[in-house]
TrEMBL record:
PANTHER family given in the database record: ENOYL REDUCTASE (ER) DOMAIN-CONTAINING PROTEIN (PTHR48106:SF3), QUINONE OXIDOREDUCTASE PIG3-RELATED (PTHR48106)
GO annotation, cellular component aspect: cytosol
Native organism taxonomy: Bacteria, Bacillati, Actinomycetota, Actinomycetes, Streptosporangiales
Name used for this protein in its record: NADPH:quinone reductase-like Zn-dependent oxidoreductase
Pfam families to which the protein is assigned, alphabetical: ADH_N
InterPro entries linked: ADH-like_N, ER, GroES-like_sf
Domain Enoyl reductase (ER) as annotated: residue spans: 11-177
Amino acid sequence: MSIRALIVDPAAPAALRLGDIDDPAPRPHQTVIDVRHISLNRGEIAFARQQAPGTVLGYDASGIVSRAAADGSGPAVGTRVAAFGAGAWAQRMAVGTDSVAEIPDEVDLADAAALPMAGVTALRTLRAAPILGKRVLIWERSEHRLGLRRAGCVRAVLALLNRPVQVDEHLRRRHRVR
């Protein structure tokens, strides 16, 4: 079965064209996501000409899990997620479950597509570091600031953690965190 994707084509304008590719074949630790929204990062467009023909670009996506990971490590079919992984500019992508975050119902999937690069990086850091009950600072890089604020990153990251995290009172009021 084939799916549509934006693929690298050196002969096309901006070195990109819409084309058909094979449906992703996930590894046991990967989930398949029906991509609903992506975010465009300047670097992905800028470096398109340096990629091999046929490469599917994109790293940030949000969508719905259509196939759970065979090893049982990820979210169930039908779960709303944001994902960080190669090949996001396609109708479906396979991505490691360690790069997928469930999206709460109150966060719009279009907004959630802005979370992966910055949000999953923050989430991985929060999961890896012994910070439970400690104050943390998530520093926003300038190119992500608008997307993170629009998507309510602070609320979304706290909702994704699903555990208590201390947040400065000013940040609580500013981002309406309860």
